[in-house]
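Re: zinc ion structure - here you go.
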Amino acid sequence: MRRFSALLSPTRKARSPLDSDHPLLSLIDACKSTAQIKQAQAHLIVTGLFLHSFPASKLMVRLLALPITSALPYAQQLFDQIPSPNLFLYNTLIKAHAPTSHSSHVSFLLFRSMLRSAGLCPNRYTLVFVFHSCCYGLGVSEGEQVRCHAVKRGFETSVFVANVLIRMYGNHGFIDDARRVFDLSLERDSFSWNSMVSGYIGVGDLERAEKLFDEMPERDVVSWSTMIAGYVQVMETFCQMQLVGEMPNEFTLVSVLAACANLVALEQGRWIHVYIEKARIKMNEQLLSGLIDMYAKCGEIALAFKVFRDKNNLRRIVWPWNAMISGFAMHGQSKEAINLFEEMKIANVLPDKITFVALLNACSHGRLVDAGWLYFKSMSSVYGIVPGLEHYGCMVDLLGRAGLLNKAEDIVHSMPMPPDMVIWGALLGACRIHRDVERGERIGKYIRDLEPSHMGCHVLLANMYSQSGRFDDAKVIRERIETSSTKKTPGCSSIELNGMFHQFLVGDRTHPQTKQIYSFLDEMTIKLKNAGYVPETKEVLLDLDEEDKETALSRHSERLAIAFGLINTAPGTPIRIVKNLRVCWDCHQVTKFISKVYGREIIVRDHMRFHHFKDGCCSCNDFW
Ligand code: ZN
Ligand code: ZN
């Protein structure tokens, strides 16, 4: 650090303390210890600059950025010496106190003194910081006092304020109040959704958490991790109950089964099944549906069907049927799904909305266009069920996948309700599969006008351009994605090993076994190439050269998870992966080769469906 005194020589031109390039100020930025901060403070006092808010706040911001435990008490001392602190100084200190549970009450006191003694008006930031302190150390009653100020100043509808309010109510278990703020907020971002989901998980309401998670317009890694944490929490609570000898009831078991299903934790799920039988817990329709769903989502569709068949007496209501039809649909067994629906009709069980979502999905995966139309029409004409957004979505998907893009687009335009992003996304996805760039472009533009921040659709469009060789157009979109404040959702895959869940992001290097995983991947690529694998780099968005594109592909999250599975499990053990995004073409190819070369069954569940890889083939027949 340069010596301060050199800067204070009389030959230097006098500068205003508010000059942002004042030499003393830039030296403050360079302070790296409390000793240096003290030195700088001494100079500020000697030169009289300390009386001005700007240099004083600069000193405080620098001090608080130092990674030392004494920074906060020292900052408080500094603050107390400043004659009339401005709003910025108050905000800085309120913010610094807020997240530490033992001093969060100080931020509330500061807020009060700011209103009363200093007579300052809080701005949006002040309120967000004080609310933040109410999320942790303080409670809802303090939060509500602050909320009055937010309402008075018209900040309540600001997305930042609404978000921290959701977090505050959620953290303290006031979940209905949190939901009210969420429902009333005019603008929502991924933070609002994630806070709300995590609030539900906090109070153990997995069902509502799941429902909201499904409704999210875009799921980022945080939402994904929040949900996983929720499921893990359910399983841990169940284990604890076992330890203290508490008997779980059927509701607990249903939610534990849902957790196993969503984490693809087959061993735990099987254990619960045995437990239900051994403890002679009375099986009902709900529990049976949970078991079927668990086996289906863990990739064991035959076991799911066995459970369904074994419980003949529990087939009088629609739940177990729905679970089974959905299971078949997920696994691409369209004929089985349809047969079961016909059997259900004979058994005189009335279908509901969920049955038709499953049935139409099954038709879509099997490209059964005529059957799909027939069932769709029968909904209202035979069963009196008004098709909802999700049913129209299935139809667009069905027609789009089958290449009937005109008809699919007609449906979108003729729907009685406005189409949502999922429907537009399905249509755009179909344009990509069938390489209808012109239509894709038109729809892409439409989506951009409707929801400019929707990254998933931009990525689809960019992929479509690069696939058809229009690299310049792809580049324009890519740049737009990169400069946008909302980032593209990164791929994220998870795998369970001995009761632990391991998560991998695309290009992840944080896992303790990273080194081993990456060298395994390199070796694997050579082995697969020898077996005939050719990388398909057209979907890679980046304008890299071919070799780099290959590397980018080989770091996709599911490959990291599969490599981790291959390293850590005995030969022949099936590998089960859950992924948040659609599996790309190249990863699909690679996984087929892995299943053959390494002799492993690999079950990948992406956000849409299942891929069951075995002996070099996939259950989806390369159509997904
Ligand atoms: Zn991939
Ligand atoms: Zn597949």
